[in-house]
Specification:
By secondary structure, the protein is mainly alpha-helical. The chain has two domains: 89 residues, no CATH class; 38 residues, no CATH class. 57% of the residues lie in helices and 3% in strands. The chain has five helices and two strands, in the order H-E-E-H-H-H-H. The chain has a two-stranded antiparallel sheet.
């Protein structure tokens, strides 16, 4: 039995997650990171799986007609949108902090040479960046 069975039960009612006998299937590292962050926040007691599934369901419903869940990437984009929503609802972050982090990643992306891993440390506005 997997440690995430309760999560899977809730998700199976909303939008089943691609998985094999070992657990979820991820096509990109960011998808695994979004999943892991969600699990960690749940394990820290910030929300129940029922709350998570409800939030994810709303994210899917809001995207209906504009961005269907027809690929692994779109599934996790909706997952990420739900994660941003629930952390804001639970006051774990705020829109300013999220916007600041988006901008830092954008700067890091632009400052990273082609073919190299994009790291937040590459943000030129970050204190000590490039040193």
């Amino acid at each position: 039995m997997n440690n995430h069975d309760e999560l899977y039960q809730h998700l199976d009612r909303v939008a089943p997650i691609s998985r094999c006998e070992d657990g979820p299937i991820f096509n990109e590292p960011w998808q695994a990171q979004a999943f892991a962050l969600t699990v960690a926040l749940h394990e820290q007691g910030h929300f129940s799986w029922a709350e998570w599934a409800a939030c994810f369901s709303v994210a899917l419903e809001e995207a209906k007609g504009t961005s269907p869940v027809n690929s692994q990437e779109s599934y996790y984009l909706h997952w990420l949108a739900a994660l941003e929503t629930i952390v804001a609802q639970k006051n774990l972050t705020n829109q300013t902090a999220l916007s600041d982090r988006y901008e830092a990643w954008e700067r890091a992306t632009l400052a990273t040479p082609h073919g190299q891993q994009i790291l937040l440390e590459n943000d030129p506005a970050r204190s000590g960046a490039g040193r």
